[in-house]
Amino acid sequence: MGRRLIRPRRWMPPRVDDPGPTGPLIVVRRLGTGGHGPEDVRFDQAGRVVTGLRDGRIVWLDSVTGDRGVLGETGGRPLGVWPLGDGGVLVCDHDRGLLELGADGIVRVLADRVGGEKLTFASNVVQGRDGTIWFTTSTSRWDVDDHVGDVLEHSCTGRLLRRDPDGTVTTLLADLKFGNGLVLAPDESFLLIAETTGYRIRRHRLGDTTTDTRTGTTTDTTTGTTTDILVENLPGFPDNMSLGSDGLVWVAIAAPRNPLVDRLLPLPGFLRMLVWNLPDAIRPKAVPIAWVMAFDLDGKRVHDLRATDGSYGFVTSVAERDGVVVIGSLTEDDVAVLATTPPPAI
Predict the structure, then answer these.
(1) What is the C-alpha separation between 205 and 331, in angstroms, rounded?
(2) H or E element, residue 293
(3) In whole numbers, what is the pLDDT of the chain averaged over residues?
(4) What residue segments make up the domains of the chain, in order of their start?
(5) What gap in Å lies between CA 312 and CA 6, rounded to an integer?
(6) How many Å apart are CA 37 and CA 19, to the nearest integer?
(7) Helix (H/G/I), strand (E/B), else coil: 261
(8) Distance CA 81, CA 74 (A)
(9) What 8-state DSSP symbol labels residue 74?
(10) Which fold has domain 26-338?
(11) What letter would DSSP give residue 276?
């Protein structure tokens, strides 16, 4: 059976600007999850690491002792997680949409359709103090197993959505270049969104807004614009993000940018179609690396930690709490704890 056809869109990526790492990424211990693919990691209020596994389980891990337990199961493929103060967890489930896993283990669907269409590839989620939930979808064209198809197609069909406390779901942005990680500013004045195939982190301001009833897109009436860019031209593919107790935005870099893909993106689409249909053995692949970065809220790079020793790979999430940094991966079995981060780069 042949691969699904891609619909290539031309895009001129910026030339790679890679200042290099500020230090090594050192794994000091692994935390067994009892499963596979801890795609997103977050600390809960008790200091435990919460993550979702490929088999649908949401588990907690003690970063010191390695103890673990199961909070519940979503019945799908959990990706982004957001621990709640009452012991529950908000979950972006690839298959089922935006869910709430209660402290009692009961799953409630918060959003599985938007604009009359099935909500696909829910990716990352945050919640405000008033109960408002913001979440991303990565693409409306591809699933997680074929995400490389979206990288080559450059579909720009990722979304940022808001779920109000009354259950209303609104599309805020509908043109994200593979919408992914999400961070809410401490004062809740803006959101940061990782655009994986745009190599950037976008900032969306949360001021007074108006909504276009035709498109469902919301515009900030205070600034006259919806977004600007916090960090652009990253040397790799940004994935999930989190705000650390250190006040930094921690960003997982799943892989370095691929020179062949960057060369193909501005060219006629049939070339990418040829690459997409190559046998797996010779198609472009992600370079094995473990990589995380951290920025302050003005977009200044503070940490850039990398490892190519095979100790861990394809990092899709990172979280920091009180100096402890943990990472997760779509392709690993374990969550990894990193060595204490070095002083900020000068």
Answers:
(1) 33
(2) strand 290-295
(3) 92
(4) 26-338
(5) 31
(6) 30
(7) helix
(8) 12
(9) -
(10) Neuraminidase (2.120.10)
(11) H
The residue with tokens 């976008």 is 202
Contacts of 3 (CB under 8 A, 6+ apart): 149, 276, 277
pLDDT per residue over 112-146, tens digit each? 999 888 999 999 999 999 999 999 999 999 999 99
Of the pLDDT bands very low, low, confident and very high (cuts 50, 70, 90), residue 341 is low
Q: Would strands 315-321 and 301-307 be described as parallel, antiparallel, or unpaired?
A: unpaired
Instruction: Write out the E strands in 177-226.
Output: 179-184, 190-195, 200-205, 209-211, 218-220
Q: Which residue has the tokens 């993106």?
A: 265
Pairing mode, if any, of strands 23-24 and 301-307?
Answer: parallel
**206: which 2 tokens?**
């949360």
Q: Are 53 and 89 in contact (CB under 8 A)?
A: no
Place of tokens 């006259």: 224
R_g (Cα) of the chain, nearest Å: 19
What's the whole-model pTM score? 0.93
Assigned token pair, 334: 């374990």
